[in-house]
Amino acid sequence: MTQKQKLFAENYLANGFNALAAYQSAFGEIGKKKPSYPYTLLKSPEISAYIEERRQEIYDSLNIDATRVM
Predict the structure, then answer these.
(1) What is the rounded distance in angstroms from the CA atom of residue 48 to the CA atom of residue 38?
(2) How many other CB atoms are there within 10 angstroms of residue 21's CB atom?
(3) Exposed, middle or buried by CB within 10 Å (0-12, 13-18, 19+), for 25?
């Protein structure tokens, strides 16, 4: 995973799962030819695995589980 892809993933988590805002933070403006590229990045196995790993780390650090949510 490139540094920009990692930055995209971190911004995706920080922006409340907003792929467009995360893409703009990591890569800059989106050209008119590739408006769906942020969502294509989310489908990448490497990026989606990293996001899931980080999400789990965040949930674990906050001690979030089904019992606590209820």
Answers:
(1) 12
(2) 15
(3) middle
Identify the CA nearest to 42 among candidates 16, 24, 22, 14.
Answer: 22
Nearest residue to 41 (alpha-carbon basis) of 51, 31, 29, 33: 51
pLDDT tens per residue across span 15-66: 999 999 999 999 887 766 666 888 999 999 999 999 999 999 988 888 766 6
Stretch 9-17: mean pLDDT, rounded?
Answer: 94
Instruction: State the sign of the Cα–Cα–Cα–Cα dihedral 18, 15, 6, 30.
Output: positive
Return the beta strands (E) in the chain as ranges: none
Is-above-0.90 flag for pTM? no
Which pair of structure tokens corresponds to residue 19? 């792929």
